[in-house]
């Protein structure tokens, strides 16, 4: 057994209102630079929908993730090492900008500088943020927001295509009754990352201490195989620097014990952060399970129970501080995944063992209960509806359990049961023993789960132990000897090459996140499309007369 | 003049080549990349880039054999002059054509696709110009002189001079008799080497062959000192919020 810790996330989808605050704050923090205009480390999709980039879940097309070969061995879907190197001159499975969207900006000076007394209202025209040319806005990262255009396009959702045609047709019919939910997505920081495995340069790596997957910007050579290999399409090419970039799990914040920016700013408070302990030696076997329906359980079994004294002892033995073991015991992520078993991984069939899990949304099911003329507060009726109306359970199953509808139904029944139990408890003061029995949980367990899902406070939602070093004493000595060593460190822990190593006394603050000090200097010789104006705003440098 | 062209320039260019690479490696790891633009344009690239790269690999191989392997070695291996000549000319023509077609398509693509043109740096333009000139001279030498013309046995002159540069006993007199197109190509070749470390061509040295035997998943320990823990919002509130002074 080789014990490791992983910082992981769970999102409770029932609470997502699709406000995109996570996306916006993430973008402001990490990708508001030239070359990353089209990049969203965090994006919120509306499901059903084709997503961002378009049809990213269609692995027949994009060749992301892992699969089992004819001998049952785990291989990257994009092929073996030799095949990958043979495609290094041109990667046939790389999404182009059209598969994401062409980023646009607006020439707002036209409005600001419009003279008085015009007979027509001045109009700001969309222009490509890449070329400055006028363009038509035809797609964006959240173009399908709240089912926009779904009647035309959502039939192409890969999850629907995978379903039984009759059921899929019924889901499509349900669009008109607005069966939908929001799906916020970040990098999954997988236990078996396909992107890392496909990186020819060895520039991508998983951190030993907290499992965060990063791109070493100094070692990336721009071979772009990671983009293809990631089935979630959460590694991006920065077209300005020619290097791969991805969600960093806000590692400078995590190291300081703070939640990620997307979690911190989440309006619905639906994100949970904590660590899970797992056995690295068990990862390959879990990813290689033959039956896709067994993947969920196999992935759960990779995790180790931190309350087991043997596990705790092994963790300490491996160099983890006591604080980390305590955090693993208190981890809300661990509780939702392994205790209550209400969190599910996104597309376990990609076999990457993703570490961002989701509590599936009950609300579309409740809508269906109401639409069927049943009482959505009655656990029995909800249970029956979940069983009878296979929609949208089968759709959720395509997303979270590799198509195993029973597994998703089980989770939904737990959530519905919790709802009814708490209703009876609050309104009537009674304990609904029959519900406890039906969902296999005790009353106190249900109440604890309710508290965690419904009203958990900041410190309960985010249990993040401070970063540690396996050789802390040596590092402290080194830091003392060379007070200003940080900028010279080669191959630092992540983007920008250097970690926040300015010494133990400096708090990690948001202000230190900027990947480059001066975005305009990233590409010498490239004409700047934007210039920093005296008022501090970025202005588009286009001659209105030439337009 | 002969000393300048065939002794001073080669050594100057080789010095720039070596020192330039050391400097770039030490100071610009961040800029050391293929600088892929496939994200911005994929259709033409998928044909042009493999054509260019495979052609270039063939051309490089041809130069290595032609310049570094002395005629005495091929003779010892019982490769007749006729077989050698035919292989060199036809191999050079085919791979050279692949390179030229690929390069032409890449240049057209770069110029005609506004997105790609915008991410083109001055060094890229210099590189494309140098590649174009070198390819044109090289193809002239191969096709016009050796395939269609009377032929020129560069192995007795240019190759000997080229090797002599690396033995540090340059024989510049061998170059004065060579045809002009060969002289230009040889001189251009050294200038091209001097340009190399300052362009995206450095990605050649990062050809990821080690990937073939590396374990799939790479683990790395975090580096640098441990940052201080940041206070929780509640702690900040208690410290600076209303009523804090009263406590």
Structure description:
The complex is a heterodimer of chains A (547) and B (247). Chain A has 547 residues and is an alpha+beta fold. Among the domains of chain A are: 18-104 and 137-259, Alpha-Beta Plaits; 473-546, no CATH class. Chain A is 35% helix and 13% strand. Chain A contains 25 helices and 17 strands. In chain A, the strands form seven sheets. Chain A has a five-stranded mixed β-sheet, sandwiched between helices. Chain A is globular, with a radius of gyration of 24 Å. The termini of chain A are far apart. Residues 482-527 and 541-547 of chain A have low confidence and may be disordered. By secondary structure, chain B is mainly alpha-helical. Chain B has a single domain, classed as Transmembrane di-heme cytochromes, Chain C (Fumarate Reductase Cytochrome B subunit, Up-down Bundle). Chain B contains ten helices and one strand; from the N terminus they run H-H-H-H-H-H-H-H-H-E-H. Chain B has helices spanning 2-27, 43-68, 71-76, 81-112, 114-118, 122-148, 158-166, 173-176, 180-195, 233-240, and one strand spanning 219-220. In chain B, helix 2 packs antiparallel against helix 4, helix 4 (81-112) packs antiparallel against helix 6 (122-148) and helix 6 (122-148) packs antiparallel against helix 9 (180-195). The longest helix of chain B has 32 residues, at 81-112. Chain B is elongated. Chains A and B meet through helix 3, strand 8, helix 11 and helix 25 of A and helix 2, helix 5 and strand 1 of B.
